[in-house]
Amino acid sequence: MIFVIVFVPLLYFVFKYRRTSENHTGAYIEGNTGLEIMWTAIPVVIIVLLGVQTWALFNEYRSVPANAHEVKVEAYQYGFKMVSPEGIETDGEFTVPAGPVKLNMTSRDVIHDFAVPAFRVREDTVPGRWTYMWFNASKEGTYQVYCAELCGPGHSLMLAKLNVVSKAQYAKWVEENKMKAQTMTPVERGEKLAKQCIGCHSLDGSPAAGPTLKGLFNSDTKLADGSVVKTDVAFLKKKIKAPKNNLVDGYPPMMPPYSFTDDELNAVVEYIKSLK
Ligand code: CUA
Predict the structure, then answer these.
(1) CB of 88 sitting under 6 A from ligand 1
(2) Is any ligand 1 atom within 6 A of the Cβ of residue 158?
(3) Whether the CB of 108 sits within 6 Å of ligand 1
(4) How far away, in angstroms, is 151 Cα from ligand 1 center?
């Protein structure tokens, strides 16, 4: 459209004001005060109006309602971990009661961006810093969360689900998860913790950014220095804590170190053991 608005008059004027004879000279134009005042004043008014409107919207965007439901978010390569106000940890999926929601966010490794297109909001998550955003989750349903900052080869896999439920359903969800946390087996706990691994490590035997976890336990793995090791419990634990050591042949040194507690580390290894 703009192309047409610009190029049709342009071609017309090229034709209309073309040189018609050898001695043809162009008209000498000094300037036009009226025109200059006009094309200064009109943009000034437009920009001031846009500025005032932006300021008002920005205030609304940054002022969190006092009754907002506060969730802690930790982004990492490649996923989102959330902690509800009741202390329930979830990964890749989180549940909130309908109404205003505030996210207090940080990142474990690089800059990510928590984006919920359905609510027209996004905000960077920055390592070593807390950022926040809020939105009004007025309508119950399931919404898609994306990472909107190119953060590595697994960026496009960095997704999460946001479930907005009624107050009653939320209370039920809290109860259920508290119960579940008490009765989970180590393998189940490990599976939950390992959600943050499957962006780079597949569960079906196919290689991704890192080796697959299927059949990994007690297999012979060739390292970059040519030696072959057994991936037993001790090796897996060492590798998760300090991934830059004992690099596996054929994979780039991309994995960040994970600071699991001993208990969590045992659970993750139990889970890897179970993937036969
Ligand atoms: Cu995290 Cu893209």
Answers:
(1) no
(2) yes
(3) no
(4) 4
Nearest atom in ligand 1 to the alpha carbon of residue 154 is: 2
112: which strand partners? 125
Using an 8 Å Cβ cutoff, are 111 and 86 in contact?
no
pTM listed for this prediction: 0.64
The CB of 145 under 6 Å from ligand 1? The reply is no
For 12-70, what is each residue's pLDDT tens digit?
A: 999 998 888 888 888 888 889 999 999 999 999 999 999 999 999 999 889 999 999 99
pLDDT one-digit tens code per residue, 125-173: 999 999 999 999 999 999 999 999 999 888 998 999 999 999 999 999 9
Give residue 75 CA to ligand 1 midpoint distance, Å.
Answer: 8
Residue whose CA is at the smallest distance from ligand 1 atom 1: 112
CA of 111 to the centre of ligand 1 (A): 7
